[in-house]
Design brief:
Blueprint (H helix, E strand, L loop, with lengths): L2 E3 L9 H5 L10 E3 L7 H7 L4 H10 L7 H11 L2 H4 L7 E5 L2 E5 L9 H19 L3 E6 L3 H10 L5 E8 L5 H8 L6 E7 L2 H13 L1 H6 L2 E2 L6 H18 L7 E6 L4 H11 L4 E8 L4 H8 L1 E3 L22 H8 L4 H15 L1 E3 L4 H8 L3 E5 L2 H15 L5 H11 L8 E5 L7 H8 L20 E4 L2 H10 L3
Parallel strand pairs: 4-14, 5-6, 5-8, 6-7, 7-15, 9-10, 9-14, 10-13
Antiparallel strand pairs: 1-2, 3-4, 11-12
Helix pairs in contact: 3-4, 3-11, 4-6, 6-7, 6-11, 9-20, 11-12, 17-18, 17-19
The protein binds pyridoxal-5'-phosphate.
Length: 471
């Protein structure tokens, strides 16, 4: 399998070549040349597989430069009941007739990013050892991504993580999760400033090409194809649990920010998994809902990006969206460049409203969308607790709200649960007046010793710290 860039000006590459890369050199995102097709007989054979074997079957359709036995071992080591809490890995729970929650957040950091990041950690370690190389991951986080990356890379050979976060601005639980890690290869850097300062530092360091090469700086951001691929697996696993046979369609609703999660659903659907509808759920930051309603994609300025109670969906633009639009415009790189380079570059938006391609988003690709507000989230958390004795987090609440607006009788609706309520306790307390339960392994973590350094919002200071800790 070869990978091409959405912008059409990069060499075709194989999986392990793009594994450690971010954007393609032409600024585009990597996608497989074709989507492997899965027929009913294959679905039948996969239906009864344990999760790690299902992951191997799907991954091996996209990865032909890792020997099968090695890839199988990597999947087996990644998706264990010990790490993800249950044998099913992503158990489905029926809320009411035909509406399900698929639990994706029982991994080490209690959010769905573990599903992909844990695999990425093992793939990185494998590939770096094979090349005799090292990688220093530099990132910026306001919570979920940073902790998922650290828990995935801790103790991994050949990898160091330098994770910047805005000093004092993460929730105490999130700070404790990250800063309590004592592994020598994990470096927490609290920046005196806000999240944007952290992102600017990462950009400045990455733009210093000499430094970047010398210190082998890489990232684990959500545009990484391996992360997206890992997420395709749980759409299949959810489908099998929601159906008794392979001729029944299922719909999914996905709490969305950077469009990585739902884009994996799109890939699963393109492979032939019988998905009827993919519902993109947003909060007040509704760039994506606006697009699917109107055909206008309008990137927001930082000042127009709201801080909400589902913060992991607070985005101004959706970094994986270009992958879907590439398929939407018939995989025409010239048209894609027109939209993402010319139009977005000039005006910060593009418009497909009158384009026949836009109709296909719903008709051919099955996309719908929904939007919710803080009040909606509170209402959904209360309602779900009251009627089904089930506690959900604010992101999952965004999903459930959008899902209820898109139900089709007879078609199961699977809502992806993207975080556990304990991660966003303040909003749950606001809704219900009580603290969500905390898994045993996280009891008292706020009191553990913290491993973190404070640095000013200055790229030079961060570079000096990295240089100092690289041998
Ligand atoms: C990252 C995240 C999302 C958004 O996922 P995308 O892949 O960026 O669309 C939703 N909910 C939670 C809890 C997250 O951590």
């Amino acid at each position: 399998m070869n990978y091409l860039s959405t912008r059409g000006h990069a060499d075709r590459k194989r999986f392990c070549e793009i594994l450690l890369e971010g954007l393609a050199p032409d600024g585009g995102l990597y996608l497989p040349e074709t989507y492997p097709q899965v027929d009913t007989a294959t679905l039948a054979a996969w239906r009864t597989l344990p999760y790690n074997e299902l992951a191997f079957e799907i991954l091996s359709l996209y990865i032909d430069d890792i020997p099968a036995a090695d890839l199988k071992a990597i999947c087996a080591k990644t998706y264990t009941a010990e790490v993800f809490g249950t044998d099913e890995i992503v158990p489905l729970r029926e809320l009411e007739d035909g509406v399900y929650l698929e639990a994706l957040s029982n991994g080490p950091t209690l959010a769905f990013k573990d599903m992909a990041m844990q695999l990425l950690g093992n793939l990185f370690e494998y590939e770096l050892a094979r090349r005799g190389a090292e990688l220093n991951i530099l990132g910026a986080t306001s919570g979920d991504t940073g902790s998922a990356a650290e828990y995935a890379m801790r103790g991994k050979k050949g990898v160091r993580v330098f994770m910047t976060s805005p000093d004092g601005r993460m929730s105490p639980f999130q700070q404790a999760q990250m800063f309590s890690l004592q592994d020598a290869n994990i470096h927490n850097i609290a920046i005196t400033g806000v999240f944007d300062d952290c992102q600017d530092i990462v950009k400045a360091v990455s733009n210093d090409l000499g430094f970047k090469r010398k210190y082998r700086i890489g990232t684990v951001n959500s545009i990484n194809w391996a992360r997206l691929l890992a997420q395709v697996v749980y759409y299949f696993a959810g489908y099998f649990q929601a159906t008794a046979s392979n001729d029944k369609p299922v719909s999914f609703t996905v709490p969305s920010g950077n469009f990585g999660n739902v884009c994996a659903g799109h890939v699963a659907r393109m492979m032939g998994l019988p998905i009827q509808t993919l519902v993109v759920a947003t909060n007040e930051n509704d760039v994506l809902d606006e697009f699917f309603r109107t055909g206008v994609y309008r990137v927001r300025a930082a000042v127009d990006t709201h801080e909400t109670s589902s913060p992991s969906m607070d985005i101004s633009k959706a970094s994986n969206f270009e992958r879907f639009v590439f398929d939407l415009v018939g995989r025409d790189p010239a048209k894609l460049r027109q939209l993402f380079v010319d139009d977005l570059g000039l005006t910060g938006s593009f418009e497909l409203s009158a384009d026949p391609a836009f109709k296909q988003a719903a008709e051919r690709f099955g996309f719908r969308s929904g939007r919710s507000t803080h009040a909606d989230r509170l209402a959904m958390i209360r309602d779900t607790e009251k009627r089904f004795a089930t506690l959900i987090d604010p992101h999952t609440a965004d999903g459930l709200k959008a899902a209820r607006e898109q139900l089709t009788p007879g078609v199961p609706m699977v809502v992806l649960e993207t975080a556990l309520p304990i991660k966003f306790a303040a909003t749950v307390v606001e809704a219900l007046g009580e603290e969500p339960a905390r898994p045993k392994k996280f009891e008292g973590i706020e009191a553990l010793p913290k491993r973190v350094v404070q640095l000013p919002a200055d790229a030079e200071a961060v570079k000096a710290y990295i240089a100092q800790h690289c041998d």
